[in-house]
Each structure stands twice: as structure tokens, then as C-alpha cells.
Amino acid sequence: MTFMSDLAETNKAVLEIMIYDDDMTDLNLHHKLITKYLDERDFDYNVTDITSQDDYSEYLKNKKPDIILLDILMPTQNGIEAARKLREVSKMSQIIFMTGSDSFAAEAFEVEALSYLKKPVKYDSLVHVMDKAVQRINYSRSITVNSERIQTKIFLSDIIYIETQGRKIVIHTMKGDVSTYMALSAVQEKLPTNSFVQVSRFEIVAIPRINYINGNVITMRGGSELRISPKLKEKVFEAYELYRANHYN
């Protein structure tokens, strides 16, 4: 049995990113900043620059961006209207508004925007917001495993933790347990490192499903308790604190 028949690739998927801004000077600047970020993180990506309402409508007929950086104040279609149109076809796209005004906060909340970036956009601010966006995208994706000869799709957001049991691994999810014959290391290679961390030789946990950590013991939401290997303790704490900083700040 080949590896790829056991588990679909997730964290190596291409990021589809759109920048929609009618100002070419701003558009070019944002393109440079976003590609710098993506190259530093070693992502595979496509970045599409859009300057007009017609081009935007045509794009949405064929693609759905993972992330859209969207100007608000545009003459023919403001960013809030563009975001509403996107939400009609995609609930998962991460919307980042770029603006010099705070007067659209209520509308931004309505379309479930991730954040604002104040113009002129600073690179440090972009990095912080993009890390959050990528984290959400990774966590909304799925893996597919062979379980009892049936292809089973599992959303990463449903996973609580994964453990080795003999020759099998068991994926504990919010919807029940799924067993499959494969190595834990093979699963780990396909999980986003900003949302999952190995805590022992036999277990990987979903960081967002951690309730709290007390010493060497992790208590997961739902009550399961897992012991952290001393060799992995520093790595586990670093991953947990980084997730909390990116998710809650």
C-alpha cells in the first residue's frame, strides 16, 4: 500500500491569495510584502492582483481565495460589498481589509473579516495577521485515511489527538475515533505544525484542543490526559505558547 493512498496531503497545499485594490501603487506594494512573507515561510502559493470589479467577478467564477487582502475605499465597488459577494460563494476565505479608516468596523464584523491592516501597510503588521490567516486555513482543511477499506475524510478542526496502538494509529475526533494502519510519523508530516505537536513517542495533539497543561500532563478538552515526554517538553511548551500568542492577541 502506498503512502499517498493512506493520507491526503494538507499542509503542502497551494495557498490561493488575492489582492484587490484599485490603486496600483498600493497594489504593487502589497504584492511585494505578501510575496516576501510567503517566500520566508516557504509556502507554495498563487497571488492574483485585481484592480476592477469586473475582474473580481470573473475571478470568483473560477476560484475561491484562501486569503483576500481587500481595499475598502474604491470608487466602483467598495471592499465591504466585495466581501459580501465573496461570502455568497465562500465561507472559509480569510478576509483582511486594508484601509485608513476605522468607520467600517460593524460591516467588517458582518462579513466575518479576520482583521484590518492600516494603510500604509507595515510588514510586521502583515506578518502577524497572515500568520493568523494561515493558521485558520490549515485548521479548516482535512486529511483522508483508509479506515476498514473505506476512505474517511477528517477535518483537522475535528481532531483532538492521535495515538499509536500497536500497528495502528487511532485518530480521536469530536465525531468519534478513526483507526488506520500507518506510521505516526507519516501523519505528522502532513499536519500543520502551528496547530499540532507531538507530545510523546506515541501521541500527537491538536493544540487548539488543549484545555491546560500542568507539569508534564496535558488535559485535552473532553478530559483525556496525556503525558509529555521529557525530551519533547520544551518543544511542546513553545508550540503551545506560540499558538496562544497568535490566536488570542
3D structure, described in words:
InterPro entries: CheY-like_superfamily, LytR-like, LytTR_DNA-bd_dom, Sig_transdc_resp-reg_receiver. Keywords: Phosphoprotein. The structure is a single chain. The chain has about 250 residues and is of the alpha/beta class. It has 2 domains: about 15-140, 3-Layer(aba) Sandwich (Rossmann fold), CATH 3.40.50.2300; about 140-249, Beta Barrel (OB fold (Dihydrolipoamide Acetyltransferase, E2P)), CATH 2.40.50.1020. The chain is about 35% helix and about 30% strand. The protein has helices at about 5, 25-40, 55-60, 80-90, 105-110, 125-140, 185-190, 235-249; strands at about 15-20, 45-50, 65-70, 95-100, 115-120, 140-145, 150-155, 160-165, 170-175, 175-180, 195-200, 205, 210-215, 215-220, 225. The strands form 4 sheets. Strands 2-1-3-4-5 form a 5-stranded parallel sheet, sandwiched between helices. The protein has a 5-stranded antiparallel sheet with strand order 10-9-8-12-11, with helices on one face. Strand 4, helix 5 and strand 5 (about 115-120) form a beta-alpha-beta unit. The longest helix is centred in the middle third of the chain and has 18 residues, at about 125-140. The protein starts with a helix and ends with a helix. About 30% of the residues are buried. Residues about 1-10 have low confidence and may be disordered.
